[in-house]
């Protein structure tokens, strides 16, 4: 059912973490800092900046502590860090980060490949990490990976998602990102699942996170927004891809989501020109073209600044 979007939305930027983690070539800390500053200049206030994980598993994030230290804590901006175990959580807390993002997968196989742990063990650890976060006054979020399907195990039932959400909230997790890690979701499924979730849990507990692997990312965003979700995770330039998912592609691009919702009259509070500057800077840093629609339009000179 089509409906009117009556609420503003918040974009949670994940390019520096979900985006860069798949980049083979190490991006120098100073360049990550420049991208972060361009993002905050554009008005982004929630930014997943890095992960405190094994540098052997994800070499790109080996400068996590240095990056968090240099980012500091600008007024009104929350930099968050992904952690997958207690050691990562302790290191992240030591670095001064104010928000932890943990991850639990709906799929056993993906859980094993991503964090070498069963889902049950990951939930057990969620309790520990949540406790640690609370003790230090940190916000604790969890990404529920493969919510919309797993490339190894296929469909994930809605009941499985509800059951995992029940457990996570009972452990004290404050926010959950419903993550379409492999880009397998479709708008109908998003609509049904969001409806089911919001009859069970409060809307402000959730964000949606889509990869555009099959070109359905923006359609899924819209289905989620129409369903009542208010926070969308996306990455500048459409960077991204999980190193533990075959043929993973990027997240939906921040500038494309912003274009879509603002053209519908919905505010994101972001400066669109400065967002493009951040996307162009990211391309420059990586030395290659990124594939957001807004960037391709700008490249083809079909779009004047004021139009997008
Ligand atoms: N920070 C830094 N190093 C860590 C670490 C952390 N939080 N946790 C583990 N390590 C190191 C260990 O010291 C060990 O190093 P070594 O081989 O030099 O001795 C190595 O990682 C393996 O540790 P181990 O405890 O045996 O873990 P494992 O092999 O069972 O699992 C993970 C390793 C899960 C810690 C690792 O695969 C990982 O960090 N994965 C990242 C997943 C990720 O970022 N996914 C992103 C998508 S959500
Ligand atoms: Zn992702």
Description:
The structure is a single chain. The protein has a single domain, classed as TIM Barrel. The protein contains twelve helices and eight strands. The chain has helices at residues 15-19, 29-41, 64-71, 86-95, 108-115, 119-135, 158-170, 187-200, 217-227, 254-263, 272-286, 293-299; strands at residues 10-13, 46-52, 78-83, 99-105, 139-145, 175-180, 206-210, 231-234. An eight-stranded parallel β-barrel has the order 1-2-3-4-5-6-7-8, surrounded by seven helices. Helix 9 links the parallel strand 7 (206-210) and strand 8. The radius of gyration is 18 Å and the shape is globular. It starts with 9 loop residues before the first strand and ends in a 9-residue tail after the last helix.
Quick structural summary:
This protein is of the alpha/beta class. Helix content is 43%, strand content 15%.
Order of helices and strands: EHHEHEHEHHEHEHEHEHHH
Here the CATH topology equals TIM Barrel
* Main structural class: alpha/beta
Question: What is the number of domains?
Answer: 1
What is the average of the pLDDT values?
A: 94
Please describe the biggest sheet, giving its number of strands, its sense, and whether it closes into a barrel. 8 strands, parallel, barrel
CATH architecture: Alpha-Beta Barrel
Supply database-style keywords:
TIM Barrel
What's the structural blueprint in terms of helices and strands?
Elements: E1 10-13, H1 15-19, H2 29-41, E2 46-52, H3 64-71, E3 78-83, H4 86-95, E4 99-105, H5 108-115, H6 119-135, E5 139-145, H7 158-170, E6 175-180, H8 187-200, E7 206-210, H9 217-227, E8 231-234, H10 254-263, H11 272-286, H12 293-299
Parallel strand pairs: 1-2, 1-8, 2-3, 3-4, 4-5, 5-6, 6-7, 7-8
Helix pairs in contact: 2-3, 2-11, 3-4, 4-6, 8-9, 10-11
Coenzyme A is lined by residues 21, 51-54, 56-58, 84-85, 87-88, 103, 114-116, 242.
